[in-house]
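Question:
Write out your own:
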Amino acid sequence: MPRVADACCAGSLRVLTPGPRARWDDYKLVPYAEMLDVIRARFPDFCRLGSRDKPNDTSKAWGVPGGKGQVGFITSMTEHFCGSCNRLRLTADGNIKVCLFGSDEVSLRDLMRVGASDEYIACVIGRAVRAKHFAHGGKGGMHGIAQSNNRPMIKIGG
C-alpha cells in the first residue's frame, strides 16, 4: 500500500462556475460523499481535519494521520456551504458579485466615476449583500446555474 503519510497534497477539488453555454453532465459529476468513499476504500485512515477548517472556509480539509499535507474538497454543488459564505467578488471590470453563481452584479466603477461618496458606496454594497439569495444565486442548483445568464469566471477575472 502507498505511504500517503509521506506525500504532501495541496489543492481543492471542485466544479468550476459554468458559463451560459455550459452543458452539465450528471454522469461526470462525482458527489462529495462518493469521492470520500473511493478514497477511503484505498486509504482507510483518510479523515476530516476539522481543526484546520475555519468558520467560513469554502473547502473541507481531509488527510491522513501523520500526513504532511491535506486535500480540500469544495462541495458547492453536492453539499453547498452558502449559509456560511461571507464572500464578495470584485470583478475585473469594477462590479461586485455577492454570489459566484448569481448573475446579479452592482457596478462600483460607475459609482466611483460619478463621484459617489464612500458612505453611499458602502450603502450600495450593504444593500447588495442583504439582497443575496440563500443558495446558488437563487438558481436552484447546478442545472439552474447552467441555464442562467451568468458570466463565466474567465470573464469576471476569476
About this structure: Residues 1-13 have pLDDT under 50 and may be disordered. The chain has five helices and seven strands. Residues 86-156 form one domain.
